Amino acid sequence: MRILIVGAGAIGGYVGARLLAARKDVTFLVRPRRAAQLAQAGLRLESPLGSCAIPSVRCVTATTIDGTYGLVIIACKAFDLSDALTALSPAVGTATAVLPLLNGIAHIDDIAHAFGQERVLGGQCTLAASLAPEGGVRHLNDSHALTLGELDGTPSPRVDALASLFADAGFGAAASRHIRLEMWEKFAFVASAICMTVLTRVAPARRGDAAHGRLAAPILSEFRTIASSAGFALRPMALARARMILDAPEPTLADLIFDDLRSRAIESDRFLEDVLRHAQRGAAAAPLFADAHAALRSYRDTVHPA
């Protein structure tokens, strides 16, 4: 199966490196600058689960896509999705499966609108990684679980086949009949961590901070209400896991959020907008997320004026 990965950043690079190490047929869709970097240095992965170096990496750009692919994995930043969908058109055929590995919920509708819902799978991965200045990928924890499924929850041969493909590459891969719910449950801790970080200006990993103690529970409660208004009842175990992540001394999540806030294109802003959009649709109150969104907009306009 020909596999096209959109983006060779932290997540796309990690997934691609694992698949390439397992001798899968992988091509990256990247910008010319990243293509040149990969052509010169290859792709290196440093991971506690096993490092690898791929000396030769096949890349295409938006103008050089060479036909359709059996699987397209979308692993770009949220703010790059629109351009990516336009570029991807020649790569998506009638039998192509499109698997996004993005945080949030809004991207599903965007991708389905571009290519048809029948081609789109739901997916989420539990993986913390960053891109080193020289272009290599650093795995920041010891997890790389990946779950995927049909959006309507039905079992399917293609999902089972893709779960096996990822398992062959060493992932803790599983087919799910509740992938939309699992995406919401992952988004619970991602969005809540962003909200808490913006409101307190303190990393979620710094335990003992009084503001965190007061905010973790109401932020998660607010998110749970929003998810419920969208038709997804978050399970107690998932909420407990989200609370544990917010409370635990886990610097990687905080570091990734602060790195995003320092960048010119702030992805966290898109995630808060996603939460508020669903709150508005479901007539759910979201004062904490609204305050965080306003504060983040003010910060962005001050630090990165247009």
Automatic annotation (TrEMBL):
It catalyses: (R)-pantoate + NADP(+) = 2-dehydropantoate + NADPH + H(+). The keyword ATP-binding does not apply. Gene3D superfamilies: N-(1-d-carboxylethyl)-l-norvaline Dehydrogenase, domain 2 (1.10.1040.10), NAD(P)-binding Rossmann-like Domain (3.40.50.720). GO terms for biological process: pantothenate biosynthetic process. It comes from the Bacteria. Residues 3-152 form the Ketopantoate reductase N-terminal domain. The keyword NADP applies. GO terms for molecular function: 2-dehydropantoate 2-reductase activity. GO terms for cellular component: cytoplasm. Keywords: NADP, Oxidoreductase, Pantothenate biosynthesis. Signal peptide: none annotated. It is an enzyme of class 1 (oxidoreductase). Pathway: Cofactor biosynthesis; (R)-pantothenate biosynthesis; (R)-pantoate from 3-methyl-2-oxobutanoate: step 2/2. Belongs to the ketopantoate reductase family. NCBIfam families: apbA_panE. Catalyzes the NADPH-dependent reduction of ketopantoate into pantoic acid. This is 2-dehydropantoate 2-reductase. It comes from Trinickia caryophylli.
